[in-house]
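A protein record in our archive is deliberately plain, so that people and models can read it alike. The tokens are whole numbers drawn from a learned vocabulary of local backbone shapes. For reference, a complete record is included directly beneath this paragraph.
>
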Amino acid sequence: MSEEDKIGEQNADTGFEHEDWSPRTVYYFLLGVGVMCLVVFFFLRGMYAYLDARSQAMQPPQNPLVATAPVTERNPPRAQVQSEIRSTFPEPRLEDNERQEINGFRLHEEDTLNSYGWVDQQAGVVHIPIERAMQLVAQRGLPVKPESDHGGTAKPKP
């Protein structure tokens, strides 16, 4: 038999599987997966509802004189949180309102840079506005360090 004749023949040992899943089996499988997803969803929802109700029941009774929104573990009163933070956490603390705090800091710095004031009153040290300091430097020049001889003593300029 020649090579060309062998190429055209089918091998009896090879073929395809005749036992594939029918479309009906695939649809039942997908339906089963969907049903299991729904069962798990409702189970978890019920479990979280039970745990939330249990957590609410374990809360201490609220003082009847306090007329506020219901307080839960997830939503404590802001004043209580602030007092606990101030008494519990050491410095530095996280900022409550970053924008307001940085704006206040910047305004304070601007006031300091553009006003007259004492830095150390006993030593006679003051701060002056930047514009005035630049005018004084332009008029008087920068201070010059006196030259010193090799002995380490400073000689004043004539």
